[in-house]
Amino acid sequence: METREVRMRAADLPREPGVYQFQAGETTLYVGKAVDLRSRVRSYADPRSARIRGMVDRAETVDFAVTDTETQALLLEANLIKRQQPRYNVRLTDDKSYPLVQLTDHDVPRIAVTRNPEAGAIAYGPFTDKGRVETVVKALREVYGLRGCSDHKYEGRERPCLDYEMGLCSAPCTGEIDAEDYLEDVESVRRFFEGETGVLADPIEREMEAAAQEAAFERAANLRDKLEAVRAFHGDGEAAVSSRSADGTTDVLAAAIEGDAARVARLHSENGQLVDRSRHRLDRPSVEMEAGDGAVDGEAIGSNAGVGGTSPAAVLSAFLTQYYAERDLPDVVLLAERPTDDDVVGWLETQGISVRVPSAGREARLVELALKNARQRSGRDDELRALGERLGIDRPDRIEGFDVSHSGGRDVVGSNVCFVDGSAETGAYRRKKLPDRNDDYENVRELVRWRATRAVEGRDDRPDPDLLLVDGGEGQLGAAMDALSATGWDVPVVGLAKAEEIVITPDGPRDWPSDAPELHLLQRVRDEAHRFAVQYHQSLRDDVSTVLDEVPGVGPETRRRLLRRFGSVENVRSASLADLTDVEGVGEGTAETIRSRL
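RE: above sequence
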């Protein structure tokens, strides 16, 4: 479609909210929403990138539908994307739920591993490792004899089934155990799933010791392995996780990107108990859109724009509308990042939904769990070895990522994340408040110098990494190398530029295939460093606006002086009266007010 034709078609469109579709024959290429259909579609006559131009060139017609409100346009866009799967939109394509363990609502409850609990059943989980769950459920049945058969097989039996002969069931179906004793065993199983590990671990340990005394070493070894699985069951986060609130429903969402696909993990809590976990695949546009593509008056085209529609935040924007347009909304949505489309957040909030990006506490730990699930992959190649070969270094088992975040040079912060064996090691994350300045190169230089100095002087309790990754291009990489040279810390370092996804090395740029697993690994580290930096920056900014601004006598300039002097609201809170009065503009009265209010 030529420029002139785009303008002509746009001129026929109404100046009302609605949804537009670029089409080639019967194929929909792209679906977008608009507050003003005419203005939005007309903007495509002057695309801001070759990629958007390619989409417009392929299009033959522009179809549209008018809606009464912007919210209706948002939901219609989501439904059309799900139904038509246009190649230029982020698309929700699958929905894989995680296994739970259920105790059914029967007079004689049965235990089963399932993805869809029966009505009235007590469900525990969800769990990420189905094999471990099945091992534990089998151990529970061996110790407590709970039935696992269907109602059809249970009813009308005249003699016990094979499970009874194998020691997996106490055969309540034929009265081999009375109802009261069976329900006591069910209660023991409930206690185990509610966190009382010894209910199962103690009998297995006793049996293991007896087998060892009888010189049945193979059986003792099998019991030892089973005991390890049981003890690890509650110890590594596999058990159900409670949310802070005991009322209502909460969904926790996080996104991860790999190649042309993205995954969103969803944790669902009801009445304070995490009861469901699912992972969803979304396909990214086959021709990726760049940041700001088609922007009109500062507003990105379509709900899937912003960092090319391919950042985790943009993926969350697409997921929220496409997933919830046809489902009941929760009371609270916790997100790893704020969506790129403010209309999505506005829609949720108008529905009475509380949308939060937590930075600390239990809610933040739930978000970290969702991120862990979003990043899980199966059957992957040895991306670490491939990365080392690409860069000419040893296999980088430990990678640290760096990024900075600020608002026009204010509230500048730096993040330092760590990945071990390709997975985030959140306990090794660090963050730093940096001096306020609008100079990304100097900010990166100071952040890396801070990490390097602590390592060289032995003040950092973490092992040295095998590779450093900075979020940015040649300028940021050069700044990081300056810091390493100044401190004498000898660690390989590379950069990863967002727009082109080009790996920047000291020897020059490397344009790796977009489906290379080693590139995906660097992208995960880079995206996590960015998320962690933005989260810290937002928490600092929010603290500033909601805490210090409420203190009488503290205006914007005094607030800036306080933060420049102490680095964070937390440090202001713990400062002495003498230290506070050292800050220009803070008298004794104001200092006392700050101490009392904070």
